[in-house]
Input
Amino acid sequence: MVPVIVGPTGVGKTALAAALADHWPVTVISADARQVYRTLDIGTAKPDSGTLARVPHVGIDVIDPGQRYSAGRFAREAAQWITNLDATRRPVVVGGTGFYVRALADGLFNEPELDPDRRTRLKEWSGQHAGLASWASRLDPKYTGGGRQRAARTIEIALLTGRSLSWWQQHARAEGAIRPWYVRLSLPRPVLHRRIRERVDAMLQAGFVEEVRRVRASGVPGDAPGLDAVGYGDVVAHLEGRLPVAELPEAIAAATRKYARRQETWFRNQLGDAPVVTLDAGESSEQLAQKVVELWKSRGD
Output
C-alpha cells in the first residue's frame, strides 16, 4: 500500500509530508496539476527550497507553462517514479488534484485510437472558443468541471469517439498502479478560509504578480495551460488592466475558496473503497505525522 495525503488547498498537506520525513525515509510523489509547471512557483505553493533539499520530491517542474499535462500522463509517469525509487525509500503521494489521484490509484480507461488530424483541428477550435464547460456539460452529463483543459478533454473524447468520457471511464478502466491508503485532511470551513486568505496575502507579498509578469514576458500567452489555474487568471486579468490591484487579493481568495469546496466534495465522495482516515488538520504537522505513523502501524495487513 502507498500512503496518499489528500485534502483542499491550504489544509497543510505539504507540511504533513515534510513532517513524515522525520519518521520515514520519504520521497513525495506530487499529485498537483499546477506544480508540474516550471517557473510557476509562488502561485502554485511549491515546497520551499529547504523542504525540497530535505525531502526528495518528484512530479514538480516537469514541463513548461505553455504545454499541456494530463491525468493519464501523470499516472504513467508517477507509476514509473514509484517503481524506480530506491527500495529504502517510502513513496508518499501528496496532492489536491483529484483526477491525478484517481488516475494513479484506480487507473484510467483504455483510450481508443483517435484520428490525429481531427484531434488537431478540434484542439485549434477549443483554443479559440470560450464556454467550453457548457459544451462539455452538454456532451457529458456527468462532467463535474475542472478547468478549461478538462473541459477540452471531455469534448474531444465525446466528439471523436461518439461516447462520453464518463462512459469510457466506467466501461474501459485499466488497473491502477498503486493500492492507496488515504489520509484526508480536513478543517472547519472558517479556519480553512482564514488560512487561504493568509496564504494569498503571503503569495502576493512574495512576488506572485511579478512571477506572472515574467512568465508572460517570456512569451507565454495569458490563456496558456499553466496559467489556467486558480489565482493565475486573476493576476493575468490585473496585468491586462481588467482587475484593479485593490481587488486582486479578494479575487484570488474567492477563487481559491471555491476551488477548495470542490476539492472537499471530491475527496469526500470519490475515493472509492480504499481505506481512508480523516484527520483534523488543526493539529500541528508534527502531531499529525505521529498519528499517521501510528495508524499505519495498526493497519493489520
User: Anything to note?
Assistant: DSSP finds 13 helices and six strands in the chain.
